[in-house]
Design goal:
Elements: H1 10-21, H2 25-38, E1 43-49, E2 55-60, H3 67-72, H4 100-106, E3 109-115, E4 122-128, E5 131-138, E6 143-149, H5 156-160, H6 165-182, E7 187-192, E8 195-200, H7 205-213, E9 221-227, E10 232-238, E11 250-254, E12 257-259, H8 262-271, E13 284-289, E14 295-296, E15 307-308, H9 311-328, H10 374-378, H11 401-417, E16 433-436, E17 443-446, E18 456-459, E19 462-465, E20 469-474, E21 477-482, H12 483-499, E22 506-516, H13 519-534, E23 538-543, E24 546-553, H14 561-575, H15 579-595, H16 605-615, E25 631-635, H17 636-642
Parallel strand pairs: 1-7, 11-13
Antiparallel strand pairs: 1-2, 2-6, 3-4, 3-6, 4-5, 7-8, 9-10, 10-13, 11-12, 14-15, 16-17, 18-19, 19-20, 20-21, 21-25, 22-24, 23-24
Helix pairs in contact: 1-4, 2-6, 6-7, 6-13, 8-9, 12-15, 12-16, 13-14, 14-15
Length: 644
Amino acid sequence: MSDIIRLLPDSVANQIAAGEVIQRPASVIKELVENSIDAGADSITIILKDAGRTLIQVIDNGSGMSDTDARLAFERHATSKIARADDLFTLHTMGFRGEALASIAAIAQVELRTMLQGASLGTRLVINGSKFESQEADACAQGSNLMVKNLFFNVPARRKFLKKDSVELSAIMREFERLALVNTGVDLTLISNDTTLHSLMRGSMKRRICDLFGKNLDKQLIPVETDTSIVSINGFIGLPENARRRNPLQYFMVNGRNMRHPYFHKAVMQCYERLIPADAQPNYFISLRVDPETIDVNIHPTKNEIKFENEQGIWQILTAAIRDSLGRFNVGPSLDFDRDDAPDIPVFNPDSDKMPEIDIDPGYNPFSEPIPRQADILGPDLMMPAPRSTSGSRVSAATDWAKLYDDFMRKRDEGLASVPATRTDAPAAPHATATMRDSADPVSLPIDGAGHSSQLQPAGNSFQYRDTYILTPSRDGLMVIDQHRAHLRVLYDSYLAKASEQQFVAQATMFPDVLELSGAQSALLADIRQRMSELGFVITPRGDNTWSIDGVPSQMADTPAREMVLTMIDNIASTGLDPESAMYEQFALSMARAGAIRRGQPLTPDDIDRLLSDLFRSPSPAHTPDGKNIFTIISTDYIARLLG
């Protein structure tokens, strides 16, 4: 048998590496901008065509490269960042593997123009799908100008899986935001299809946050700062009242590198317990500085997941720093003692001021006074007849109230004793009863302590319990169905089927909602705005990523339009779904939530039968569109075990 193991050609190996490092245009921008930062650039411009699939160009004023370095930089595992394995634990640069440029060159057409600082002539290099084509002297600006054209041109399967331009542009802008937050000392410009989306000047971290996400954040953030031998922490956290239910701004950075860290995120959330609603999350922008030897960044191709040696210690320091900031900046309501209209309170002077004198009559007894007559209080016209005793005589004002109370309790007990018991295995108790009628005898069921009727409303073999759940027999036992979720599922399927076909009528809003969006959100909204207008939304741009919702579909007049639009944008951005299909899904879900029957709403037998019939015709009857259970089944065996 012949040998079957062989070395892969460099071009194939580079394409395999590209699959790990370069997933989409945003990945290219991340790698190229980080290279520019490592080269000492303090001004970087990113130019895009067609959301990066046609052109990604990164221009910087960094140190540049020599002819030899420019050629060698595109070889796999060629890097200036490390020389030996020990260097992995003392990293001070963003890149270190030497795979990014080789991976990019393997799946695109690349042109590099670069010149060293102080040199009079640079070099121009052209590579096409890992194939070196030419290198020649070139008169260019100091630094580097790298163009990546026709991304994935030689890997059609990968190019086919790229999303619509608006989705890819949104991903690019999110990556740009992360890069901008950790590099506040660098001027950054982003241009897409000849339109400048961002032009950020170097400055403080807070200024960068406001430039990226809106000036309204300026008064919503409080600083966090502490310095210990384990970690230095600085950044900003959001006030509890500004916590968001959707799209919270949450960023962790370590040593100038973005990271995801669920453990530290949990530490932040723990500090906000009982300060924000359970379904809301705070904004935070937290930067950590640690000894490079105490972290490992070489555990994921994107270098966004980082392992910490002193994880538990950092948790405790982070928690203490955030709680200290929340306490120092008084997240609760404060009392203002400096109001102009506050009354004058004279200062007590023991020498000149005389204490007030109080006269007390120790012999006074307020209960010795005679009880006033009803006629004296109400007058003869308003006086009600005095109650009669059982013997027919009038009861005087000096009635024995204890006797009246005893009579009341005795009559109450006699009345309750006449009510038949509802369960033979339960002791008699003074509960009121509710009656359920069907073709058989009436059945009495107790009303619970909260005053809710526990009655069952029959519908054939199905019953409504507490006006909230539907009980119906199934092959495996007793099925308990949440009526609100069941109707939500039915309406969602119906609206989704109709959304792409119907034209909806817009209804003007009396007070337009104003949305202040990030650049990524604004790009997505601009893309779906026209289709949303066909669904009945009137959304008007106001400049600086600000939009106004001036009209909503007439069917949704009572639904919060702001929440719906933000949810649409977030779903498209987070899932990468095609904007049009994601918009229909969110529209259908919002319409269904607005129209679904509520918990506590009584249903007729016909309503119950129709709801169950529609539910079990759904392709997904077990779950709501957002993944919640619609029903559960209590098995017959379990019921038998409960009854012994």
